[in-house]
Every structure is written in C-alpha cells, then in structure tokens.
Design a protein that fits this description.
The complex is a heterotrimer, with one copy of chain A (about 240 residues) and two copies of chain B (about 180 residues). Chain A is mainly alpha-helical. Chain A has ten helices and three strands, in the order ααααααααβααββ. The radius of gyration of chain A is 26 Å and the shape is elongated. Chain B has a three-stranded antiparallel sheet, sandwiched between helices. The chains are: A mainly alpha (about 240), B alpha+beta (about 180).
C-alpha cells in the first residue's frame, strides 16, 4: 500500500481524469460515486505533492478535487445536503470518467495497430519531367504577403483560462490559513473563514477541503447544528498542530 | 472504356487522396456512376498489389495490406513513431467520434489538447477544417494518411468498430436520459 | 503472395522507373522469377487503368494508354490551377528559408506538407536535393526558373527578408522550448 502511494506520487499524469482513472483502476474498482470518494485522499495527496504544477494545469486538478471533496463530505458529514448543481457536478464527473476510460482504452488499441500493417501512397509522381508552370498570379509581393499572414497566425503563447485560475487558492495555502486562524480563535465559523457568499465557489470548496483534511488529522472538531447551517469549528488540542 | 478503369487511372496518377466531389467533376460521372465504379474497382483490386482507400468523402489508391512488410523493409525512412498515450486517446476520439472541436477534446480528456493536436497535424494524421456551426472554431478529423498508417481501407475496418460505436451510442443515450431526469426534477 | 503482386506494389510505391537489376535486389527474385512476374503482371494489367512500361532495362507502372486524354487534361489542370493558400505559404517558406527539410516546413506550417510539395515539384517551382546531413531526408529549394520569374538573383533581395527570417527563427526557438516543456511534463 505504502509503495503504491509513493508510485502514484512520482508518476506523471497528463490530467486529472487520467490520474483519477489510474487511482481507481489501481484499487481494482469500477467507476462509481463510491470508488471516487475512496480515492479522494490519494488524489489530493497527489496535488499536494505537485505544488509546482503550472497554474493552468493545477486549476484543472483542483476543480476535479473540489468535486471529490463534495463526494467525500457526504460520507464524513451525513447531515450535509448537496444542492442539485452539486449532485450534477458529481454525476458529470462520473460520466466524464466513464467516457474517458473508453477512449483511453481504445487509444491503447490504436497505439498497437499504428504502423503495424501500413499502406503506402505513391512516394512521388515524377513520371514526367517537371514543366515550369507558375500560376498567373505568382509574384514576389503575393508570396511575401503569404508568408506575412503565416507569421501572423503562428501559435502564440496561449492565455491561461484566467477565470478559472484567478481565484483558485492552493490547497496548502488554504490549510495554513485555516490552521493559523484556529490557533488564534480556537473556534471559528466555517462561514466566516471561507467567505461563503462573498468568495468564489471554488474557494469555498477548497476551504471545505482543508477543513476535512484537518478533521481527518484530528486537529479540528466540526459541528453543524442545522442543515445548510453554519459549520462550527473548534481546535481539539490547544498545542500547536504539527501539520506536515 | 469502363468507368472503373478511368477511375483507377486518375487515382493512380494523382497519387494522393481525391475528394469524391472532385472525382465527379474531373470524370464527369453521375453520383451513381461513381458509386458503382468504386464498388467495381475495390472488387477488381482485391487480389492486386494496390487497394482502394475510402475515408469519408475522399478516395485514394494505396499499396495492398499484404504488401506492407515488403515496402516497410525497402523504405529508408525511420519507422512510424509511437503515438504515445496522449496521441492514442486523442486519435481514438477523433476517429470514432469525429469531427470534433478542440473544446470537446479538452472536455473528454480533461486537459488542454493544443500540443497534441499540433503534433498530430504536423504528422499529417489529422486535419483541421472550419466548423460549419461556428466560424470561430475548427473541427478535427482523420486523414487518409491515418487510415493508411492503421492499415485500414474504410471506416468499418477500424479496430473493434461495431462494438465500440455501439458502446458509445448506448453511453450517449444513457447520458441523455439522465439529463432529462434532471431537467424534469 | 504472388510475385507479380509484390512487383506491382513495389512499382506503384516507387512511382518512378526502376532498373531490373535493382528489382532483383529489392525483391530477392531470381532472373527467371522476375521475367515471369513481368509477363504475368503485363497480362493482368491488360484491361486496367495502369500498365507496365519497359524501357530498355527499366520498368515502371504508368497510366494505361487508353486513358491518355484524361491524364493530359488532369495534368494541364494541375499545372495551371491556383497555388492556393497552402501552396503559396509553402513556396514562400522555401524561398526565404530554403534549402529546408520537409520536417522544418511542417513544423513552421503546423500541418503536413507532403502532397503540396509534390505539386510544387511537378510545376518546376522547387526542386529536391539530397540532404548532406541526413541520408533519409531531402532538402527543398527554389528552382532557378522561379528566381528568374520573380526577377531576383539571391534571397536577400526578397521583400522584408531580414524581418521574416528573424520572426521565423524566434518562432522556431520559442516553439521548441514549449514542446520540450510539454514533453517533460
């Protein structure tokens, strides 16, 4: 088990679906909401160990992480009711994963077939001697403007999907923020901390993720008095938590 | 002279994929005549050194599958490079689901596909056409060259074609049902 | 597989006359086997769109004489048609940066240039020379007829020569860095 975790950490994954599928298959599970919540921790651990991701890549991973947290939160906090859109995002992730799995497997089939039994076009068609035949409009200015427009259309540095990336806080940063806040106040409200209603949804989700992480590590105790009510947080021990 | 003979001569001389629309014009065939000539030519070539490759609305003449090993040994150029994992899955999407937009590819793969698309375009395995539904985006589809690399002469010969297509269809149907469930709840 | 099928595939693929001595070597046939295969192939092709041409010691596959009118029309059209965007930009890159390899062209254009190059070659606008650095690839450069037609004697006389060259170089450098980043991520 330990060696498996280490292996996942060092392997390179192209994207979150790739990683997720790998984690699920490694445990010999089928794609389902249950298997997804089971691999949530592994997934988050992977992001944590790759804090040097380029921002655009990290955003893709963190967005998927947020959905996994929703799933996991249901098992940790049974009182939590998921909204319709949250339910949908879970369903969607499941569906995407199942579809991705199909194409990934077919991709492996294609890799095996590729070049194995190749058919060939004619190498060249110089069966008659070339005849100098410029088109009527062939001119220096025409050619240089062809090149000019080619140069203009060369791929430029791609802009990051700013909307996605802008507000996404790293998981580690969020956990640190939460830890210090708890230290100061000993008890705090999730609503205040996460800026629910004020912050971007993704930040709230990342906050929630951080809370769960701390609960799991026994640093925090959480209490929710009513459905959709605020979550009350309290530090279990007064001594400074030794997170990582 | 038979139509299929003319068709063969034309495809041989061109040595590259020719659009069916172009064939109709160059040969002054009706659609029916072309369809028939293609059937006859495919049959005529069945035991020859060349074979007919049909990809969507494009047709070309290539060496017969039985001769692959012979030519491979004679070629000076290096062997076809491995597609890699990203290449394989991207081609799978384009071959079985294509033509697709980049947004669809990114969504299915969960990552930015710009680099792998550029790589496949340069290798001549896929091509970019303008999207009739959206002028600002492009559609990606397989080339005849890709069929040739996979050793297939028509779409139906794609690996596990029937099984995979029906799996995709039932998946899409299932998804649509779920979506309707949500819409009505 | 019959010897005449192998022979047909080889001649089709080569697309140019091949010496009989060369055929013996490439196909590992005995003289008798080759002689027999040639007879059978000639007979097999008698009612087809292609035919076997033996000229002195050389053999090639060409379009059937019955189709000569059709082929003449095709040739005229191919030599006179507009170069198109793809043809124009490919020719421009060869003018400014030539001699270049096909890989360099593909890399700059972001698409495969194989078929475009063939058209430019038969139109006598460019020519292919062997690459001193790599036996498996060729270099493409403008023909002297093209220079004369455009009224230049060296490439430095091309409009905005310095700017274009430096832009192309900075693109290649930048893109290579990105590709490496991608490959290692």
């Amino acid at each position: 088990m330990e060696s498996q975790t280490y292996h996942v950490k060092t392997e390179v994954f192209e994207g979150p679906l790739d990683l997720l599928l790998n984690l699920i298959e490694r445990r010999k599970l089928h794609v389902s909401d249950i298997s997804l919540s089971q691999v949530a921790d592994d997934f988050i651990r992977y992001i944590e160990s790759h804090s040097d991701f380029p921002l655009s890549k990290a955003a893709h991973f963190i967005l998927v992480a947020s959905t996994l947290v929703l799933l996991k939160s249901k098992s940790l906090l049974p009182t939590l009711e998921l909204s319709l859109s949250e339910e949908e995002s879970i369903e969607e992730l499941e569906a995407r994963l199942a579809l991705f799995k199909q194409f990934r497997n077919m991709g492996e089939v294609l890799r095996v077939e590729f070049g194995k039994n190749r058919l060939y076009f004619r190498e060249q068609k110089l069966d008659e001697a070339p005849v100098f035949s410029p088109s009527d409009n062939l001119s220096l200015s025409g050619l240089s403007s062809s090149l000019d427009s080619l140069i203009t259309s060369l791929p430029k540095e791609e802009k990051l999907p700013e909307k996605v990336v802008q507000k996404v806080v790293s998981l580690e940063a969020m956990v640190e923020r939460l830890t210090s806040r708890i230290n100061n106040e000993l008890s705090a409200s999730f609503k205040d901390f996460s800026g629910l209603g004020k912050e971007e949804k993704i930040n709230v989700v990342v906050s929630f993720l951080a809370v769960l992480e701390l609960v799991k590590q026994g640093i925090l105790a959480v209490e929710q008095q009513a459905q959709f009510g605020d979550i009350h947080m309290e530090q279990k021990e007064v001594n400074t938590p030794a997170y990582e | 002279m038979n139509n299929n003979v003319k068709l063969e001569a034309l495809l041989f001389w061109k040595g590259e994929p020719v659009a069916k629309k172009e064939l109709l014009r160059l040969l002054s065939f009706s659609k029916e005549e072309l369809g028939e000539a293609l059937v006859v030519l495919r049959e005529t070539l069945s035991k020859r050194g060349t074979t007919l490759l049909e990809k969507g609305d494009e047709v070309s003449l290539v060496t017969a599958p039985e001769c692959s090993t012979l030519i491979e040994e004679l070629r000076k150029e290096e062997l076809s490079k491995d597609l890699g994992r990203a290449g394989g899955e991207t081609l799978a999407i384009i071959l079985y689901k294509g033509p697709v937009t980049r947004a669809e590819l990114d969504y299915i793969r969960g990552v930015n596909s710009a680099f792998i698309l550029r790589n496949l375009l340069i290798r001549g395995l896929i091509e970019r056409i303008s999207n009739p539904n959206d002028q600002r985006s492009y559609l990606y589809r397989p080339t005849s060259e890709l069929y040739a690399h996979l050793g297939i002469t028509k779409k139906e010969e794609l690996p596990e074609f029937k099984r995979f297509i029906s799996e995709l269809e039932s998946f899409t149907k299932h998804q649509e049902e779920k979506d309707q469930e949500y819409a009505s709840s």
